[in-house]
TrEMBL record:
Keywords: Ligase. It comes from Streptomyces scopuliridis. Its EC number is 6.3.3.3. This is Dethiobiotin synthase. The lineage of its organism: Bacteria, Bacillati, Actinomycetota, Actinomycetes, Kitasatosporales. It comes from the Bacteria.
Amino acid sequence: MPVMIVTGTGTEIGKTVVTAAVAAVALARGRTVAVLKPAQTGLGPSETGDAAEVARLAGPVTAVELARYPDPLAPATAARRAGAAPVGPEEIADAAEKLAAEHDLVLVEGAGGLLVRFDETGATLADAARLLGAPVLVVAPAGLGTLNMTALTAEALRARSLTLEGVVIGRWPAVPDLAARCNLADLPESAGAPLLGAVPEGAGALTPAEFRERAVSWLAPRLDGRWDARTFAREADASGATGTP
């Protein structure tokens, strides 16, 4: 698995922190890691982008950003408004392949959800995944509404004959409500793929040292971590019942 695509069921659900956790665990295993952000939107030239944030949290990764647009919009729209060239799937795939030749793992973090438009032709991150033959890791929210969004993303992947590696919950609450607790069992059914971890809400605010130490406990063995879905579900039920984190 030299290249893996990280996408989400929407925006602002924790893709960058999940990407950082996967990178941190891989680095701890002695692997070399690159993080590719094809299109960064909503930031000025001097602001810290997602790839740089992954490097800050995870450690010494090669962080690459192909394009940056100031408006917080879909990449195709943001590029058009900026009068700048968009980033197409061929450019994404070419950059990822070059990084894969020099790294053990390349994580390609998308913008928003799977089918957000990257250029004027309607190309998406799914098209880059197809060109690369890369598996896709889906980041999903914990609570109410996540089952439908996750099922739609999984269906879109299957329709394109793409491999869904699994689902990671991007922001697990300290005190999960009933919906979040039930979704631990229901998300794998909706996705047709395993639940591969849960990153706690606020993880991105940890110090880098704390983040790297704890990341292995947030991800399943399939992602080189030690997170166990059954144990986590039991602990979530207990914390939800008592109302304590």
